[in-house]
Write a structure and sequence with these properties.
By secondary structure, the protein is α+β, with helices and mostly antiparallel strands. The protein has four helices and four strands, in the order αβαββαβα.
């Protein structure tokens, strides 16, 4: 039986691992809570406060003021146009981004960023 929320399951595993690295002082991270259902009024308020569609699922803060963004996808999903636009803006600013479908990919990406 397929899981009902495979992307959330993936994000929880990643957040648990990232929290271990954060506790070790190697990085800090957060998830911008952009998704989910909102009423029209609440959505308008959030937009006026700077919430942007397409922001990646995980923001990784690294030593030296470096930052990276990871978009998580379940199964064969692909990033939306707004997610691709956000990643392109980041790349134009020299901010690394990645799309990951599995925990092992997130682990490889983050370890690579930390080693560079």
């Amino acid at each position: 039986m397929p899981r009902k929320h495979p992307e959330q399951d993936l994000q929880r595993v990643c957040a648990d691992w990232l929290q271990i690295l954060e506790n070790q002082g190697k990085l800090a991270f957060f998830h911008p809570p952009n998704g989910g259902w909102r009423s029209k009024v609440e959505a308008a308020i959030f937009t006026s406060l700077g919430v942007k569609p397409g922001v990646s699922d995980l923001c990784i803060l690294m030593p030296g003021g470096r930052v990276g963004f990871i978009e998580l996808k379940a199964r064969a999903e692909t990033p939306t146009d707004k997610q691709l636009d956000f990643m392109e803006k980041c790349q134009l600013l020299g901010i690394p981004t990645a799309v990951c479908w599995k925990f092992e990919q997130v682990e490889d990406v983050v370890r690579g960023w930390l080693e560079s």
